[in-house]
Putative voltage-gated ClC-type chloride channel ClcB (Rosistilla carotiformis), 561 residues
Amino acid sequence: MADFHLHITGTLGLLLGACLAAGVFADVLHLPKVTAYLLVGLLVGPSLLDWVPQEHLEHFDPMLKLAMAVVLFNLGSEFTFTKFRRIAGHCLVLSAAEISATFGLVLVGLMLFGCGGSMALLLACLAVATAPATTILVLKEFRSEGPVTESTGFLVAINNFACIVLFEFGFLAIQLTQGRLETSLGMQVGNVLMNIAGSIALGVLGGVVVSFGCGLLNIKRWLVLLVATATFLLGVNESLQVPYMLTFFVMGVTVANTSDSKSKIRDELDHLSGLLAVLFFAVHGTELDLNAFFAAGTLGAVYVIFRIVGKYAGVYIAARLTHQSLEVRHWLGSCLFAQAGAAIALSTIAVARSPELGKPVQDIILGSVVLFEIIGPLFIRKSLLETGEVPLAQAINHAPRSPLEQVRSVGDRFRSAVWGTATPNGSMSGVSVNKLVRKTKGIHQSARFDDVIDHIEHSHDNTYPVVDDKMSVVGVIRYPLLSDVMFDLSASQLVRAEDLVSETNVVLYPDDPASRAFELFQAETDDCIPVVTNAAPHELMGVVRRSDIVHALITQRRKKK
């Protein structure tokens, strides 16, 4: 026993088991699960308990890259060309401002505090990156929907692409100024562009293979096809030394625009991505180095502060100048703080290319990641709740049963099996409507038809509340009734929202029990019901969706069975 050494399979079981426990505590403490997985990795890693052998972690690298690839594929599969054209107009401005502000503030801030120009330039390039896995999986965990959620996905994708390009050209600029270019500048630039083009081409090819194969094969074989394609492309990317993150994002975009089954494909990948995501964050948690965090010193603190200010201020100023919504102005920037995979990978490349320059850069990145990966998910959760893009019940009403409640449940089930009595069912009496509201401003009754269509394009519902000047609900617009007007171009120029309204007496109040909403949905075909304030003039607060009521009901039943 004195010579006992844990086998790598034992390490895998230890990490997954620890994460399982962490997920339970995350529910109790109302933390994003991503944060819990990172913290448990930090706990069992070298910085604290040191239960996980360092050499074992290196063997998990292919699985971690596959996890990142799956996340990026899922992110890309959300972007059809139609959706891209719809959101690019306002998101590209936000992205350009956020990238410029982050890059500029970090560069200037570090140089003001005594950092060398080359080191400051590389850190400014890396500051642009936002952790895609952390950000996207938190959004997915809370089932968020809305303009902030949509814009976050877009900005995360652009940030990581921009980071890769800025890093490569930043390194070229450093080599040029130091006279270390091994070949001509034109050839070096050509190599960078060829790597990016090759990455995109591999993504397009992989996407076409997946779309064609899933259309040809039985759905039971899709997961094998997806894993085979993803792992093969990862190997090709590694062999050619081209950025794999761009490949898998483009692969997802290709599938989104060439397959009618993209939702089913994502569902198939979900069978694998959940397990991979747990392992991804647990292993990255073990790599968080508290000593590096404290050793980063003044420059590390400057990097952290100016990166946060750059991302928040860049989005806020651009959103204000372009007259975007208050939710986007105040909360989109704080969804972009997380940083991990891309920045760490590129800092490692910097060390390989120039150890004397790359090592201090890597130390600051590894130190700051400890903070960004812990606070990032917390800021995302806060932003989603403040914007109303996730119902409060989704964030807080998923606590598991206590051990005593579980013992009671086992006893009830045993008595039911022996005596044939029914076990008690869950109820929704503990959930109120105000915990299920998704915020919306509705459509003003004087809105032009084009404005109505714009609202619909940004919505996931098929029923839209219409309000007057006092924000009182005057009725709803139902999507099926719009079809005649949509195809009559002459009529659409004259129509206002009030011309499309159907009267409704079905509304909910914030202190109504969720069971009341469930009863109303049983008699309604609409997919959502307006929620209004208790006091006159009963202003619109938002809507409650049928799907959220069903989700809450299922959650309550699981807790009380």
Remarks:
- The chain has a mean pLDDT of 83.
- The first strand starts at residue 438 and ends at 439.
